[in-house]
Amino acid sequence: MRRVLDVLAVDHEEVIVPEAKADRDALDSITGQRGVPVLVSDDLPEGYLHDSSEISAYLKEHYN
Question: Which helix (H) or strand (E) holds 52?
């Protein structure tokens, strides 16, 4: 995801989450899941995307 964000010059904030999924309570409270990558944005209908192919498609559609 970082490469797609960089290539498209998308202004973003990268948040480093704990390596252990069990320690990702903050991520779980926002998205309902503990996996990464995740794109969180007020512009998204659910507030987030958590599938890398969906994130790439969204970024290419909106920032290309």
Answer: helix 52-63
Question: Which domain covers residue 21, as residue numbers?
Answer: 2-63
pLDDT at site 14: 94
The CATH number that applies at residue 13 is 3.40.30.10
Task: Specify the number of domains making up the chain.
Answer: 1
Residues in contact with 17: Cβ distance below 8 Å, sequence separation at least 6, in sequence order: 24, 26, 27, 36
**Could you tell me the two tokens for 11?**
């202004």
**What residue type is 17 in one-letter code?**
V
pLDDT tens-place string over residues 10-56: 999 999 999 999 999 999 999 999 999 999 999 999 999 999 999 99
